[in-house]
Known about the structure:
The structure holds two protein chains of two kinds. Chain A has helices at residues 62-69, 92-98, 115-122, 131-136, 139-158, 174-186, 204-221, 232-238, 256-260, 263-270, 273-279; strands spanning 24-33, 36-46, 51-55, 77-82, 85-86, 100-102, 192-196, 224-228, 241-246, 249-254. By secondary structure, chain A is an alpha/beta fold. Chain A folds into two domains: 1-99 and 190-280, P-loop containing nucleotide triphosphate hydrolases (Rossmann fold); 110-188, no CATH class. In chain A, the strands form two sheets. In chain A, strands 6-7-8-3-9-10 form a six-stranded mixed β-sheet, with helices on both faces. In chain A, strands 2-1-4-5 form a four-stranded antiparallel β-sheet, with helices on one face. In chain A, a hairpin with a 2-residue loop joins strand 4 (77-82) and strand 5. In chain A, helix 3 (115-122) packs parallel to helix 6 (174-186). The N and C termini of chain A lie far apart (53 Å). By secondary structure, chain B is mostly helical. In chain B, a hairpin with a 4-residue loop joins strand 2 (129-131) and strand 3 (136-138). Chain B is globular and about 65 Å long. The interface between A and B is medium-sized, with 31 and 24 residues.
Amino acid sequence: MDRMVPYPSNSIVPERDVDKRPVLETHHLGIDFGGLTAVDDFSITVGRSEIAGLIGPNGAGKTTVFNLLTNVYQPTRGDIILDGVSTSRKTTAQINKMGIARTFQNIRLFANMSVMDNVKIGMHNSINQNLLSAFTHGFGYRRSEKASRDEAMELLEFFNMEDVAGAEAGALPYGAQRRLEIARALATHPKIILLDEPAAGMNPSETAELMENIRRIRDNFNIAVMLIEHDMNLVMNICEGICVLDHGKVIAKGSPDEIKSDAKVIEAYLGKKKEADNNA
Amino acid sequence: MTFVSNLINGISLGSVYAIIALGYTMVYGIAKMLNFAHGDVIMVGAYASYCTMIYLNWHPLLSILFSIVVCTILGVVIEAFAYKPLRRAGSLAVLITAIGVSYLLQNAALLIWGSTPKIFTSVVNIKPLSLFGGKLTITAESIVTVAACVLIMIGLTLFTQKTKMGKAMRAVSEDKDAAELMGVNVNTTISTTFAIGSALAAVAGVLLCSAYPTLVPTTGSMPGIKAFTAAVFGGIGSIPGTMLGGILLGIIEIFSKSYISTSLSDAIVFAVLIIVLLVKPTGILGKKVTEKV
Lengths: 280, 293
């Protein structure tokens, strides 16, 4: 018997997510800057525990999509549905509370704060304490402070960073800063985490570790991961569904194998075959 | 002994500057704007305390509390109506708005209380401390002011290091957008900053007028500008730097008044600022921010 698929059948959703509601859907999402259409008709579905990839040539609008999803830019058109709820008219902070967390293409840690405090800022919404309790150091404060410290420590241990908890975030080596950014995002208890070029500037062994970490994040926290990445080896290896963006439009969606052999994708990355022949 | 007495007066005046400067520095650090109306909030605080003490015969402590409440509300209201709508506007628009708010407050005070100076009764009713057989007299106001300044500094440091809101403030001051993406409510954080800064302004207003009892609608503007100078002098955005800047500025002012010239003291104060900024543009304790390219 055919399984009922509750969302568009062209989306690639892993087997384990098939009978569950998708965590993220976008419907005909678009944004114009002045007269320029940066992203148009962007419709995707991401499964609950899917690792999804968003790829495309430079300037295709990938980071713009992330900014739309987090309401850093207000969409001109279309809807974003997170776990069945529309995120329109929600502020960036509220969207984070609803379950979308992200990292940045160029690292944006709170460089002058400790590694521990960076993670704690991520946990901001779940820490319950007020000014009075902090000054009196009452029972409630100590308990919530201890709980948040324990949770932050667990997250740091997950990324092998427990030894540098007290260090200033800006003083960490590059790879550790990248991991801390992911830890900080995870501290907000997201349903989906958006990673903007997580492998940028990494050597092959660091990239391999990152791939392992992305899988562990999905398996341990049971959340969806959506990543923008130029490293095709990484994308093809860990992504279950891939969406290709070119000039702000989706030109292909599918599994890694489908994307690899898609004529439009090859054209977007390598140029038209004919032109290439003519130019040669 | 004159030297010691001058030094104490300088530290005391400097403590007032420091408390005012903290308001400038916190707002600048978090909202990245210069709130030039801050000095006039001090004046409103002093009037609030004056009126409750004189007309309603309130106890000085109660009048201080009232003044703190009035200024806190005023600060939050100013932020919500004048600055919040300009959150995405250029910094020049915000600066000009702040100057406008400053004139609005001064003229509103002129309308309500008139231009005749009010004589502020000190909130400290303790006899001056007499040391070395009367050779050195320290006013109770000086002691209370310095103590208040130290307490406020300790309180603020604990607040920004230990509390959730304090951490949110530091995060917003470092990267507003990233903080927002981590679920920090930037608007609430900025409002809280204005509330704290304005509450401090009330305390500063009462202390200032207790030491220098003439109260007119422009009472806040000169101390406001000097406190701003102190914040820049010490390193705007840094709490210890601002404290240090305030106290140094107070000492410089009193010393130039007693050893050089009373009328030139303000000129000397600002000359020192210019020299410090030429040598160290970020202020004494200000951090140099290098943007990685």
